[in-house]
Specification:
Blueprint: H1 3-15, H2 18-25, H3 29-43, E1 48-51, E2 54-57, H4 59-83, E3 91-98, H5 99-116, E4 120-127, H6 129-137, E5 143-145, E6 165-169, H7 182-186, E7 189-192, H8 198-209, E8 215-219, H9 223-232, E9 236-240
Parallel strand pairs: 3-4, 3-5, 7-8
Antiparallel strand pairs: 1-2, 6-9
Helix pairs in contact: 1-2, 1-3, 1-4
Length: 248
């Protein structure tokens, strides 16, 4: 077994498909599949469930993914740990950012890090908040910027901002100038992300607390598809706006 077997397997699991993983690490898809197959043969277990929708780890695959991720993280940190013995902090920090925030924050984070810790390298990953929280728990990320409306045990956290949700629609809502009530929204056809997406959990909880049921006519886990449905039809959605973050 070689480190590349573990690295390729971890990337496939993180990407959810061989094609996306091959593109991310610039390896031909047949070669990537062969490397993962060699790892499965060496361990004697099927590590991935393959389908037309992509791949997901088996029970054995989840264990290998967790342990392999930790091995690779320690391997990445090793040169920095050795160099840091001179007294100056060096190394790699695996930093996750919620997808909707990545474009506006990644550049500022790099600038601030290089100014404060010039020999530290940030390695970014962007994904949904739920995925990033799972990766923090699995110790494949050192820290992450995520959305949450309730505390998850075992995480050390620091609140940065409070996010607002907005009703998105093609035509103006004449009877309302600023705040839209849940009673008004409950009467509208909505296109929302599916459960267990974090934003959907927040929306469902708010309606349930008000004793209301949202009129959901379609679900999509892609923001572009969600907005496209709003533009083409007289549908509505509930979206957040990424906060404006000044450069550090």
């Amino acid at each position: 077994m070689q480190f590349r077997h573990l690295r390729y397997f971890v990337k496939v699991v993180e990407s959810g498909s061989f094609s996306r993983a091959a593109g991310a690490i610039h390896v031909a898809q047949p070669a990537l599949s062969q490397q993962v197959g060699e790892l499965e043969e060496r361990l004697g277990f099927t590590l991935l469930e393959r389908s037309s929708r992509g791949v997901r780890p088996t029970a054995a695959g989840e264990i290998v993914f967790r342990e392999a991720s930790e091995i690779l993280r320690q391997l990445e940190q090793l040169p920095g740990i050795v160099r840091s013995s001179s007294g100056e902090v060096e190394g790699i920090v695996n930093f996750g950012i919620a997808v909707s925030l990545a474009g506006g924050i990644a550049g500022s984070a790099v600038t601030a890090c290089k100014k404060a810790l010039p020999k530290v390298t940030l390695k970014f990953s962007d994904a949904d908040s739920d995925v990033l929280q799972d990766r923090i728990e699995a110790q494949t990320l050192d820290m992450a910027l995520v959305f949450e409306d309730y505390f998850v045990p075992n995480f050390s956290r620091h609140p940065i901002f409070r996010q607002r949700l907005y009703l998105v629609r093609r035509e103006p809502l004449a009877e309302c100038q600023s705040v839209v009530s849940l009673e008004q929204i409950a009467k509208l056809p909505l296109v929302l992300p599916p459960l267990p997406k974090h934003q959907r959990v927040v929306i469902d909880r708010a309606f349930a607390a008000a004793g209301l049921t949202p009129n959901i006519v379609a679900e999509t886990d892609a923001a572009l598809s969600e907005l496209s449905a709003v533009r083409r039809e007289f549908r509505r959605s509930i979206h957040s706006l990424s906060p404006s973050m000044p450069a550090a």
